[in-house]
Amino acid sequence: MKKTIFVIILSVVIFIGSQSSAAEKPRLGVLRFTNETSAGWWSGNMGRDLQDMLASELVSTKAFQVLERKELDAVLGEQDLGASGRVDKRTAAQIGKIKGAKYLVASTVSAFEEKTSGTGGGIGIGGISIGGKKERAYMAVDLKVIDTDTGEIVDARTVEATSESGGLRLGVSRGFFSGNLGKYEKTPTGKAIRACIIEIAEYLQCSLTKGKDDECMQEYEGKESARKEKTKKSIKLE
């Protein structure tokens, strides 16, 4: 009787453990973006800004455990402070509890184009102008997913986004506006950047949490085929 009870309890524990393991969300670390274009909006800290944007977008999906890497030194400092004995043991951060990432997400801005058509003429008063310019921005990001156990690239994808603005345009030309990505927020450039970030997060949610036969993966495979076909047509061989 006791042996039977023990076997039942052991089976339940194993079942619960396997279920918990299967239900664990993928653990991701987001690396700083790199840039291979001559985009005018790119500055020294832009790679970290995009890293933050993507990490926040991935957290918002609630599909991943997104692990902090940019501020890891601050986390380690807090743990060291807790271990020093100067912090109440009940609230001190524990050493050895930092989770390891199963996957690292690496992103490179591989293409960026910005075009303006029409005229922006008109009377300017106090830095305010009314014009008819039509602006268009295109951006492509090469994405890699790296397995930290093996160093293998387990997924790679190119994500594209295009944004336009046109018609009557109210522009502010005063020179005291500053910031990194903030100043592009309502421009076609900023919208293309945001669209790429959202598309990356949605693609990762699909590829890392759903099967290859899922409807969303079929949709992305269709996008990838169309992108490759478009690229082939743009190449002219002598």
Give the key terms.
238 residues, six-stranded mixed sheet, 5 helices, 8 strands, 39% helix
Descriptive notes:
The chain has 238 residues and is of the alpha/beta class. Helices cover 39% and strands 25% of the residues. It has 5 helices and 8 strands, in the order αββαβαβββββαα. The protein has helices at residues 2-23, 46-61, 72-83, 188-209, 215-234, and strands spanning 27-30, 34-35, 65-67, 103-117, 128-131, 134-147, 153-165, 169-172. Strands 1, 2, 3, 4, 6 and 7 form a 6-stranded mixed sheet that branches. Strands 5-8 form a two-stranded antiparallel sheet. A hairpin with a 5-residue loop joins strand 6 (134-147) and strand 7. Helix 2 crosses helix 4 (188-209). The protein is globular, with a radius of gyration of 24 Å. Mean pLDDT is 77; it is low at 10-22, 123-130 and 167-179.
- The total of beta strands comes to 8
How much helix, percentage-wise, in residues?
25-40%
Rounded to the nearest angstrom, the distance between the terminal CA atoms is 83 Å
Number of helices: 5
Major β-sheet, in short? 6 strands, mixed
**How much of the sequence is in beta strands?**
15-25%
Measured on Cα atoms, how large is the radius of gyration?
24 Å
Structural class, from secondary structure content? Answer: alpha/beta
Q: List unreliable stretches of 5+ residues.
A: 10-22, 123-130, 167-179
Mean pLDDT: 77
Shape, per Cα inertia axes: globular
Query: What pattern of helices and strands is seen along the backbone?
Result: HEEHEHEEEEEHH
